[in-house]
Amino acid sequence: MYDSAYFYLNQASLSPNIHTARSAYQALFYISQEEKDYKKAVEYSNKLWFYQDSIGKTDRNKALIEMQEKYDQQKIINENNLSQIKKDRIIRNVLIALIILSFIIAITNYLYQRKIVSQKQEILEKEEKIRYFTMKIHENETLINRNKMRIEELTIQMEGSQEIKEQWKEQNKIRQEIQQQNEMLKLENNKLQNHISNYAQSLKEKSKELEAMEHLSEENQYLHKREAFLCNQLINQTELFNKLKTTKYIDDQLWQEIKEKIDLLFDNYTKRLYHQIPSLTDGDIQICCLIKLRFSNGDIANMLAISPTSVSKRKLRLKERIVQEIGSLGENQSLDLWLMEY
Fold first, then answer.
1. Is the CB of residue 334 less than 8 Å from the CB of residue 176?
2. Quick one: average pLDDT of 254-266?
3. How far apart are CA 206 and CA 30, in angstroms?
4. Which residues have CB under 8 Å from 181's CB, separation 6+?
5. Which of 101, 108, 110, 235 is the most buried (most CB within 10 A)?
């Protein structure tokens, strides 16, 4: 399942940039270790050593020794309590880093907007209009990218809900509405860009403040995508969630572990659901958790030992219960999208 990852990472390893090559070999090392291909892991570890030496990294002996021992022994070393504690500590540290990153972004935006307000009277009318159009374009681009992700999620969910005609029609309708919204946003962006060009022609020079704002907007979009990528990587590196992919049935003890991990990763996800929608049953929360982890109807059916049709019916009942509590899921929102973004 890592074929495409191997391909792109091997391409990246050929980069003349030693930092890029080092990161690529590090990722290849982790993937090989995950697949227990110790021979490849040792090969990638040696290359990683070379690049880490080039950039002044010296603390690497322990990883190679452990990898060499695993290669020599050719067997799985059962993780002990200490390794589990270390893994939980890594997860916690990554979460703290993500929270700090989000806080820094929020503070940066706040301080920057405050500065703009204080200088508002000094900015010419045309620059004000260019600023508004530029921000609107970036907002639209962000929404377009978000809608593309939602369309992909809906397409996947529709493949698993073909047996429930009503649910499939609803998902298809939402997908079409999102596609139409994206087309309208693209047209609006073209018009806004034309307005910006017209105003910019009459200005001798675009203000430095405007250029800084555009740069900040681009950085925020990058950081938002990076944060989402790190969250997905964290899920993929969590042993419990990887275990679910091969589990045919989830018992009560495993469910408790799943809820604890999800609450840790997604800011008390199940607790917030219980608080906002008290009528949810334990079975409802199980469905919510598996949707949050982006499992298909077929996967959910296997884990709950029911048919895919039963999964779709339970989703419909869950949606009705949620709507009764909160009134509406929102515009262009299906149950799956709402829970994934909750």
1. no
2. 86
3. 47
4. 143, 147, 332
5. 235
b (16+ CB within 10 A) / e for 257-267: ebbebbeebbe
Q: What Å distances lie between residue 36 and 30, 80, 90, 243, CA to CA?
A: 10, 18, 21, 15
Three-state SS for 60? coil
Neighbour count for residue 122 (Cβ, 10 Å): 9
Q: Do 168 and 162 meet the contact criterion of CB atoms below 8 Å apart? A: yes
User: Which residue type does 218 have?
Assistant: E
Token readout for 18 is: 């030693």
Mean pLDDT of 152-161: 70
- Yes or no: say if 271 and 280 are a contact pair by the CB < 8 Å rule: no
Average pLDDT rounded to a whole number, residues 226-232: 62
Q: How many CA atoms lie within 13 A of 320 on its CB side?
A: 7
Q: Among 33-47, 64-78, 213-227, which stretch is predicted with the lowest mean pLDDT?
A: 213-227
Determine the average pLDDT of the residues in 117-142: 71
| Other CB atoms within 10 Å distance of the CB of residue 339 | 23
Asked if residue 1 lies in contact with residue 31, where contact means CB atoms within 8 angstroms, the answer is no
C-alpha atoms less than 13 angstroms from C-alpha of 329 in its C-beta half-sphere: 19
Give the separation between CA 276 and CA 278, rounded to whole angstroms: 6
Asked if residue 338 lies in contact with residue 297, where contact means CB atoms within 8 angstroms, the answer is: no
What is the rounded distance in angstroms from the CA atom of residue 164 to the CA atom of residue 288?
A: 19
Question: In this model, does residue 297 exceed pLDDT 70?
Answer: yes
Q: What tokens were used for 82?
A: 């200490």
Q: What is the residue whose two structure tokens read 């008290």?
A: 278
Which whole number is the average pLDDT over 10-35?
Answer: 81
CA separation for the pair 147, 332 (Å, rounded): 10
pLDDT for 272 equals: 92
User: How large is the greatest C-alpha to C-alpha distance in the chain, in angstroms?
Assistant: 73
**d(C-alpha 182, C-alpha 101), whole Å:** 29
Considering the entire predicted model, what is its pTM?
0.45
Pairwise CA distance, residues 188 & 108, whole Å: 28
